[in-house]
Specification:
This protein is of the alpha/beta class. It is built from twelve helices and eight strands. It has a single domain, classed as P-loop containing nucleotide triphosphate hydrolases (Rossmann fold, 3-Layer(aba) Sandwich). Helix 9 links the parallel strand 6 and strand 7. Helix 3 packs across helix 4 and helix 10 runs antiparallel to helix 11.
């Protein structure tokens, strides 16, 4: 399997709140630094990539936000019309179809079509070429919705390939599915936190990706990993110290903080061990917890070095 930054297509998936957009931004910066032409495709998200990277707000059409780095926050209707133009290769035909209220109403009412509009657009950019024949993008990264919605989106190409009649739509879905399942070209990046609930959900997500979707997990990213302050033998003392000190003691607040940290380190250690047991062989990248008041471009730059 190629290295992470040498893939053509990556899905970044995980439970809401684990830092998928942060990880996506770090991977994108790392790849663009390597000279890769990168597109970050967000899926109708509450856009925060521009805040992380210090750029102008990112809209529904591809825009350059840094050297070698483009981004788009895909909106289903805009993505559907743009994807239609890409595939049909005719502005006249595209308008005839997508400006017809009956047709657009039918498309909007078709289950999974909005997800496919965004996924299809992202897929198209993996094969898009410039006038000189060079690929427009070396790497397309999809910042997927949170776990349940993300899985639903990844299921769409298989559903279309199974139920659509022979024709352009089915052929496009089959081609996309072939790419998404090819470990030589694509992969899934699972993002989690070293905590109980995200860990359990990540293991279940991995199972669904492998068994149901038959897509290749590429890398596990464990975000916000704390450095160890307490050895395992020291944690019981750190936990119990707050109970031994009177609340008026000037050291009581420090003891409470120590107890909280010791408990969190214990949970982190247990979560990392559980991930290692459940997902053996899956490459893992650990990103440190960054204690910074403003999580912006400088923080993302430091995380990018991990990739």
């Amino acid at each position: 399997m190629p290295a992470l930054l040498d893939q053509s297509f990556l899905f970044v998936v995980g439970k809401g709140g684990v830092g998928k957009t942060t990880v996506t931004a770090a991977i994108a910066l790392a790849a663009s630094r390597k000279g890769k032409r990168v597109l970050v495709a967000m899926t109708n998200a509450k856009e925060r990539l521009s805040t992380l990277l210090g750029t102008e707000p990112i809209g529904p059409t591809n825009q350059t936000i840094a050297p070698n780095l483009d981004a788009v926050n895909m909106i289903p209707q805009v993505a559907l019309e743009e994807y239609g133009l890409m595939v049909l290769k005719s502005r006249t035909l595209q308008r005839a179809i997508f400006e017809n209220r009956i047709v657009t109403g039918l498309l909007r009412g078709t289950p999974g079509m909005e997800a496919w509009a965004m996924l299809g657009k992202a897929f198209f950019h993996t094969k898009e070429t410039l006038e000189n024949g060079r690929k427009r993008y070396d790497l397309v990264i999809v910042d997927a919705p949170a776990t349940g919605h993300g899985l639903d989106m990844l299921r769409v190409p298989k559903v279309i390939a199974d139920v659509a009649p022979p024709g352009l739509l089915r052929r496009e879905a089959e081609d996309a599915l072939a790419l998404f399942r090819d470990p030589a070209r694509a992969g899934v990046v699972l993002v989690t936190l070293p905590e109980d609930m995200p860990t359990n959900e990540t293991i279940e997500l991995h199972q669904a990706i492998v068994s149901e979707l038959r897509m290749p997990p590429h890398t596990l990213v464990v975000n916000q990993v704390l450095p160890r302050l307490f050895a395992p033998t020291e944690r019981p003392l750190a936990v119990g110290l707050a109970e031994l000190l009177p609340s008026e003691s000037p050291l009581h607040g420090l003891a409470v903080a120590g107890r909280t940290r010791a408990i969190r380190e214990e949970v982190q250690e247990h979560s990392l061990a559980k991930l290692a047991d459940a997902l053996p062989g899956l490459p893992r990248v650990s990103l440190p917890m960054l204690f910074t008041p403003e999580f912006e471009r400088e923080a993302i730059e430091s995380l990018a070095s991990a990739f």
